[in-house]
Amino acid sequence: MKAMIFAAGLGSRLKPWTDHHPKALAVVNGKSLLQRNIEYLQKHGITEVIVNVHHFAEQIVDAIKKNNGWGSTITISDESDEVLETGGGLKKAAWYFENATDLVVMNADILTDMDLSAMIIQHRRQKPLATLAVSERDTSRYFLFDEQGVLCGWRNMKTGEKRISREAGSLIPKAFSGIHVMNADLLKLIKQEGKFSMVDVYLDLAKDHIISSYDHTGKQLIDVGKPESILKAEAIFP
User: Which of 6, 92, 208, 224 is most exposed, with the fewest beta carbons within 10 Å of its own?
Assistant: First the structure.
């Protein structure tokens, strides 16, 4: 199985570090976020990874070369001209997964001890188009699932915006953790062009396809998006 790590973001919340470095190279206990997630994927048997780059792209490329991919085979998807967000970034890198059956996608700024292997097993057993890692925690935006864990919609708690893709008797909000396992066929179904989010892709596809959830509530998860979250991460991830 192959994977993609999204590392092209500007990381504006992680200033002043990101004034001179990419967010993916922010350091937690001597290891960059990118290295930690390469090693996280390795623990679950994934050693072929494509990484998209934009902000201080050359620093990420240099770090990968200097460290020989930390033991993995890493390919670069260059978004130097324009950052394409998660959906556009995945679509640009779709060629990498041409012969794949399933793939893993994750954000570079997420640190977790979630059992990715168990998530992959569930995905292969249930055979949805994609499985999204979620948990019960406070956030400003939620995916909405039915009682069977099938994606039905999305809600922004700050603006009140709500999008429903399929009707359900009750809608259960879950916070998305930035980790996806998907069938490679999904890549051919992405209709959006240019710069767009995977949220929009999933909400469109949920109308006619099963997008499932993997609830890992109780496992550690940190979005290392702000300077104070570095300190929190260092207390949890040695």
Answer: 208
